[in-house]
Specification:
The chain has about 240 residues and is mostly beta strands. The protein has strands at about 1-5, 15-20, 35, 40-45, 55-60, 70-75, 90-95, 100-105, 115-120, 130-135, 140-145, 150, 155-160, 165, 180-185, 195-200, 205-210, 215, 220-230, 235-240.
């Protein structure tokens, strides 16, 4: 984990500072973009390492003294069981310090998960991971979500998966990916409901294998695919109601 500070004078050199060096037991190979909380704490994920070797969710807390060491803490170590494994996408902070993200593997059906990590009621306590959705329960579902999620105005969660979705003649198993929506339960503790908004490719010029995360503007979702399209080299797409 590093920090790049701008020069003190125009045209000067930017200064890199290493905040933390990852190691196997504490998580390795961070891929997702970290997110910064209002208090300056940094939250992120690693693809591998940790107690079970399946990646972690971590927090870096700024030093109390300028120039001091940042404090690193593993908030959750993935087991490759129901909780998922190998997160790649960035985390999202939503509500009262709750973290949301995705894992590319494992979960109840092996296709990855969307999860939330809830802070403890008492400072210093354990964080609680809740799986909101596990991919791969049925044919046509997405799998391998490798990007961040975004929230809609009503608390719905939107994201994409890099494989899965409806199978077509031009994109057979494991599918070309999908854009999904998760709707929160009507009662607390209930199941989130998934809707597939779009499966790639739906036509000869559609993209395939969405890789980056989504952004949302006025209810329209925007994203990119890493392959196909009319020139065969990927697309920028919009999905709206």
């Amino acid at each position: 984990m590093f920090q790049l500070s701008p020069p003190s004078t125009p045209g000067g050199a930017w200064t890199e500072t290493i905040l933390y060096n990852f190691k196997w037991g504490q998580g390795v190979e961070p891929r997702g973009t970290p997110v910064v909380a209002a208090n300056g704490a940094i939250y992120g994920t690693t693809y591998g390492g940790g107690k079970y070797g399946e990646g972690v969710i971590y927090r870096l807390t700024p030093p109390s003294i300028p120039g001091g060491a940042w404090n690193y803490r593993v908030l959750h170590a993935f087991t490759a069981g129901l909780d998922g494994a190998s997160p790649i996408g960035a985390l999202a902070l939503h509500g009262s310090g709750v973290l949301y993200g995705t894992t590319t593997r494992a979960g109840a059906y092996g296709g990855g998960t969307v999860f939330q990590l809830v802070p403890p009621a008492v400072a210093g306590g354990a964080w609680t991971e809740n799986v909101l959705y596990s991919f791969g329960a049925e044919n046509g579902d997405g799998s391998d979500p490798a990007a961040n999620i975004v929230f809609g105005a009503e608390g719905n969660i939107f994201g994409n998966t890099s494989t899965g979705g409806a199978m077509t003649t031009s994109c057979s198993i494991p599918g070309c990916g999908a854009v999904f929506e998760l709707t929160p339960p009507a009662t607390e503790g209930g199941a989130w409901a998934e809707t597939i908004l779009h499966s790639f490719p739906s036509g000869p010029t559609d993209g395939a294998r969405p890789a980056g995360g989504l952004i949302i503007s006025e209810g329209v979702l925007f994203g990119v695919t890493q392959s196909t399209g009319s020139n065969g080299e990927g697309t920028v797409y919009a999905v709206g109601k």
